[in-house]
Design goal:
CATH superfamily of the largest domain in chain A: Response regulator
Structural class of chain A: alpha/beta
Number of domains of chain B: 1
Radius of gyration of chain B: 20 Å
Oligomer: heterodimer
Number of helices of chain A: 13
Helix content of chain A: 40-55%
Strand order of the largest sheet of chain B: 1-2
Number of helices of chain B: 14
Number of strands of chain B: 2
Radius of gyration of chain A: 22 Å
Distance between the termini of chain A: 66 Å
Strand content of chain B: under 5%
Strand order of the largest sheet of chain A: 7-6-8-9-10-14-15
Helix content of chain B: over 70%
Largest sheet of chain A: 7 strands, mixed
CATH architecture of the largest domain in chain A: 3-Layer(aba) Sandwich
Number of domains of chain A: 2
Order of helices and strands of chain B: HHHHHEHHHHEHHHHH
Chain lengths: ~375, ~325
């Protein structure tokens, strides 16, 4: 019992551990919350690495306003309930001037009201749900939203001359439903035909019933706006059933295991994305090289967005000339033609980014750049 | 006994009201942790009535919490305007929302309680687990509740007073219930169902009652959560959340309210406390990755605690004496 008591006391005392993050006077504290562990850790880790790299670069170049940026990162374990707690910590304990995060919209939606109430600007790198920035005038995003991605793919499908498309939606993901809705809207409004509208749920393993039905309709292509885990299986099973048409998708396709599982089944397929590591602009090449040197891997779009979010914030602090929250907010809102890794970013009056999407194709065991579609 | 607990309840309510006056001066981060502690106390104490005192193994407490959270949030969002924005109006509305949340959860408790009467132990655990998933699944597909997008926009009405006054009320109700003559039935069902039945105790009624009361308070806790975080998502009420609450009950000691409260406090503080540990400058770099994965430390502590005290912090002796 004595040992137990001491454990209990030790547990309670952990709260008294001093907070070493308090920034020195010559530093500007910036908060970041991300899913570094748990279900969406692969996204969270990527965006975090990108953000980290950006902050290092800014500091190496002398920082902003003569001060260095201090990035304070907290892990929300991909768990609901955590973002609110963490963002309160970042704001009240670490006194951050702005908050960066999260990739998942459901996490951003939890943290956004707290940032808004405390009047601390928040920039989400990759939350595509339109509702996130509707929370208030202190909430920004630097990625495009679901409707735009759906429309881009519909445009692309038309440009390829495809007339008959089947849609396979993940009903458990709002993201997927959103993309499908706007794809169908744009495609049918311009004379295209949706020959089959099939559904599946995250975690499903067998897609043959849906694919058999799709095959019978003889589509020119299949739009699958899902996440990489299911998309890889769908692609494999489609080829097994003899469905040889190209598959189309969105940024949810990007994930480590996509090509490992799908093998060559996805060759010749297309998806929209925020960024391509193959793009030959000097900025992109520079970023990819630096990222590779630091982390030993090729950056994905989450890393690029994380990088851009920190760069936009630093640029806004520079333009504001102060870290006063109202002035900083105005400076972020005034971001125009920021030349980011993920394209030329302008924030509109709804605090959403207006920027081009990149279309990639799968082949030779990797992704190749096809074209950039402007909004 | 009853008199003393009544005084204690009064003291607790007054204390939470008094502290609530100074809430503005509490660091918001600590305030967040305090509210989480209060909510977890309600959850763990109410689950203890089912798992600890009545001996039914429920793994679906987060499901009832979800029912309450969504029920109260929906009421606030849909009818919040009716009573106006005056302090009295919002408070009445908030109390109404919490009560509705509790009642919806209690109904859900009734729905699980009745069919699960035929089941015991592991089988009951699986049924309650399934029920948790059903509630989550229903919410995920219910458009008016935001489906997979989550539900937000509720006002932040949960404060220190409401959280801890309701936590005190939960403790009061559970303690009084199981320590009353009537409530001995719960303990009888747990200790020996067949003997209890032979003595003329309506075991069915007691089991359902435990589920309904437990679910009611879980629903209230859900309502408090929804009006504190201001955004709820089905994934926040998954199986893992249920397990969190079960761990509090087991760690505290099945059937020991004091132990369960202590465990709820400890298990809420610990993960946050470990967060600060990872940032300590004196920590050698080799240990930093471990500290950063603080959940490993957290699990390790749980294992050590369970090895040193398998009956939980306060479990065992007190109840054995009562049995004799």
């Amino acid at each position: 019992m004595a040992m137990l008591r001491s454990l209990l006391v030790a547990g309670a005392l952990t709260l008294l551990i001093p907070n070493p993050n308090a920034a020195a006077a010559e530093e500007i504290p910036i908060g970041e919350y991300a899913s570094l562990t748990g279900g969406s850790a692969s996204f969270g880790q990527s965006s975090h690495k990108g953000t980290e790299l950006a902050v290092e670069e800014i500091n190496a170049a002398g920082g902003v306003l003569g001060k260095k940026l201090k990035l304070i990162t907290e892990d929300d374990q991909s768990q609901a309930g955590q973002p609110a707690t963490i963002v309160r910590k970042l704001i009240s304990q670490d006194k951050v001037v702005a908050v960066l995060g999260e990739v998942a919209s459901s996490k951003s939606l939890e943290a956004a009201p707290i940032c808004q109430q405390n009047k601390i600007p928040m920039i989400t790198p990759a939350s595509t749900n339109p509702k996130v920035t509707e929370v208030g005038d202190y909430i920004f995003r630097i990625c495009f939203i679901d409707p735009f991605q759906g429309t881009v793919m519909a445009k692309f499908a038309r440009s390829k001359g495809w007339k008959k498309i089947a849609v396979l939606t993940d009903v458990k993901q709002d993201y997927s439903v959103g993309l499908a809705e706007f794809f169908v809207k744009d495609f049918t409004a311009n004379g295209g035909e949706i020959v089959r509208d099939q559904k599946y749920s995250t975690g499903d393993k067998d897609f043959k019933p849906q694919l058999t039905s799709i095959k019978a309709a003889r589509p020119d292509a299949i739009f699958i706006p899902g996440y990489y885990a299911e998309v890889a299986l769908i692609a494999k099973q489609a080829r097994l059933l003899g469905l040889k048409v190209p598959l189309l998708g969105g940024d949810g396709w990007v994930g480590d295991s996509l090509l490992k599982v799908a093998g060559h089944s996805l060759d010749g397929s297309f998806f929209s994305c925020h960024f391509s590591a193959d793009e030959q602009s000097p900025d992109t090449r520079n970023f990819v090289a630096k990222f590779k040197a630091k982390h030993g891997e090729i950056p994905d779009d989450m890393a690029a967005l994380g990088y851009d979010s920190a760069m936009i914030l630093a640029d806004a602090i520079r333009r504001a000339g102060t870290t006063d929250s109202a002035k900083l907010r105005d400076a972020i809102a005034a971001t125009t033609h920021h030349d980011g890794i993920t394209g030329n970013i302008t924030l509109d009056s709804a605090r959403n980014a207006s920027k081009p999407a990149v279309i990639l194709t799968v082949g030779n065991g990797g992704f190749q750049f096809v074209e950039t579609v402007a909004p | 006994m009853i008199e003393r607990t009544k005084i204690l309840l009064l003291v607790a309510v007054l204390a939470s009201a008094a502290i609530s006056l100074f809430a503005g001066q509490i660091n918001p981060y600590y305030y967040d942790i305090l509210i989480s502690i209060g909510i977890n106390i309600i959850l763990a104490t109410s689950l203890n009535l089912v798992n600890g005192y009545t001996g039914q193994f429920s793994l679906g407490h987060a499901g009832f919490m979800a029912a309450g959270a969504y029920g109260s949030a929906w009421l606030s969002l849909a009818f919040g305007y009716v009573l106006g924005t005056s302090a009295a109006g919002t408070t009445t509305m908030f109390v109404l929302a919490l009560t509705t949340g509790g009642l919806i959860a209690a109904l859900a408790g009734l729905a699980v309680g009745i069919p699960s009467l035929r089941l015991r132990g592991d089988y009951l655990a699986i049924v309650t687990l399934g029920f948790n998933e059903i509630i989550k699944g229903v919410i995920q597909n219910a458009e008016p509740l935001g489906a997979q997008r989550g539900l937000g926009g509720m006002g932040q009405h949960t404060n220190f007073f409401w959280t801890f006054a309701l936590a005190a009320l939960t403790v009061y109700v559970v303690l009084n219930l199981v320590h009353s003559t009537y409530g001995s039935g719960f303990l009888a069902v747990r200790d020996d169902e067949i003997a209890a039945e032979a003595m003329g105790i309506n075991t069915t009624k007691y089991k359902v009652l435990a589920f309904v009361i437990g679910a009611f308070f879980a629903g209230v806790a859900g309502g408090l959560y929804a009006h504190f975080k201001q955004f709820i998502h089905p994934e926040g009420f998954n199986f893992l959340r249920s397990v969190d609450i079960v761990v509090m009950v087991i760690l505290g000691g099945m059937g020991s309210t004091a132990g369960v409260i202590l465990a709820a406090i400890l298990l809420t503080i610990l993960p946050e406390g470990l967060r600060a540990l990872a940032h300590q400058p004196w920590l050698p770099d080799s240990l930093r990755p471990i500290a950063e994965n603080r959940m490993i430390l957290y699990s390790l502590l749980l294992i050590i605690l369970m090895i040193t005290r398998p009956q939980g912090l306060f479990g065992g002796p007190g109840l054995k004496r009562r049995k004799a």
